[in-house]
Amino acid sequence: MKKRLTRRAQEMIERTLPYFPELIGKTITVGYTRKHLGSATIIYDRGAVSRLIIRLKVRKLTYQTIGHELTHLVQGLSRGDRRTRSSLDAKHLPSGEKQCDIWTLARDPLFCDDPPTYLRLPRAMHERWADYAKEVRELCIVAIEKRNEFRLYIRWLEAEIRELAKTPLPEKSEPKQLILPFAT
Ligand SMILES: [Zn+2]
To answer: Edge-to-edge strands of the sheet including 38-45?
Structure first.
């Protein structure tokens, strides 16, 4: 992990961090991966969190990927410090890949620049993600609220997403791309 981050990757990460107040004051090591879009690792030392690492594929890097990996770190942190675990807390972020996608999309529209990887999306929605991103994000937010009293909130969400894909989209005059203020 000696290689420097590209300037673009660094700028994207810096722009992302303010959306993750849970990670304030923590050191995150960022490395590269070629194999996956990204990965996240938490290293424990005698039950306490000692290192946070994310690895990113820098080519075609998206905010969705950065957000996803940082959300994994938050998942890990909310699991613990394994010595003081309080998983019944409503703010506790559940572990799992689909959960990671849901909480990443819900966090901010910034992370909707690419479709999620694990949440099940109909193909048409995958292909026209920019047209659906806003509505899918809103459904994710509702699903998170539902989770408090409804265990099958992910199943509910994926059913709602399928329904959404069936509804014809209004013609949009905007270009079919989310406009994000990339620094150039
Ligand atoms: Zn993941």
So the answer is: 28-32, 48-56, 38-45
